[in-house]
What does this fold into?
Amino acid sequence: MSLVVVEIVFGDRFTATIWIPTAAVVAGAAVVLFVTGRTAHDEQTLEAAWRAHVARITTGVTVAVAVASASLVVGASVGVAVGVLGATAQVFRFARSVPRIDRLTLAWGSVVTGSVAIVLVLLGVALPDVPQHRVSVWVGGGGAVALVSVVVAVVQFRRAASAPRR
It folds into this structure.
């Protein structure tokens, strides 16, 4: 009975096996944010505020990478993956000063997302038994996501070189 419900909610078992761990990553990020935010609130120090900031950036990029990668793997809209990366990069647009850790975290997140996209492109080309709706997203969309990821990573690594430490 539970497998029938899983297939109705997610579409198929493969999609469920991708989105359920992704949801666990998002839930884990929420717990980390709660704990670090609560600690920063209780301590009221600059160090605690800095730890909370690093936790926010790290969990935000981790969730963005997980959602972008999962959406590509299941064959969802490519716009989701590109949008997540683009929106994450735009967070820094109006900030006066962006610490180095922020830029490096986003750059490495882009590298991971680009790597997943490249692997999916190769799998889409090499494996004949993959459903056509996934192959089109993996090859076409994966190539686009890989390109955007490389651009975001290069820009963020370059800007990190001149960014302040805090």
Remarks:
- Helices lie at 2-10, 13-43, 46-74, 78-90, 100-126, 132-161.
